[in-house]
Amino acid sequence: SAELKTLVLDDCDAAVTVKVLGELGELAGHTLERLSLAGCASVTSQALEHFCREGDRGKGKLRRLRELDLSRCADVTDEAVRWIAKSCPELTHLYLEGQPQITDDAMHHVSRYVPGVVAIAARGMPRLTDKGLTTLSKRARRLTSLDVSRCPLLTYTCMRDIGGLRKMKKLNISGCALMSDRAVSTAPLTL
What we know:
This protein is α/β, with parallel strands linked by helices. Helices cover 34% and strands 11% of the residues.
């Protein structure tokens, strides 16, 4: 039988409901490697929790999921990121761009449950601070790509910790209003 490995439902508000995500988790969660729900306003924390719970009950945990895009899903919270991180331990790429509710707690959950993550896009997150990036940089040592552009609360302080990520290849800190010239001098420029 065919195994669904990639599913892209970007901007499909009407199609992505709590019920649909639950069924998807149960029926295909064990085969999915890449899931993109970018721009789906109907994707809520409740729907993601249901997806994770049903995936855990289905034919196996969501262990194969490597890439998840939740960009511009405005109702995603730190608790949803916790569910995802706990249910998807092999996640390597996580896209959380434009999430107004997500805070440093989400970075804590990712670093705690998914230490092998290699790429995070957290662009335009108004509640993300240096604390979240410091936590992430201490545990997610395999991180090679980090986009935190347009995060207004980030300062140069987090650059010291990010500089310790020796595998970092791509770092985007553009548009962070509180970054100063010290950020560039502290950034891991040996990349």
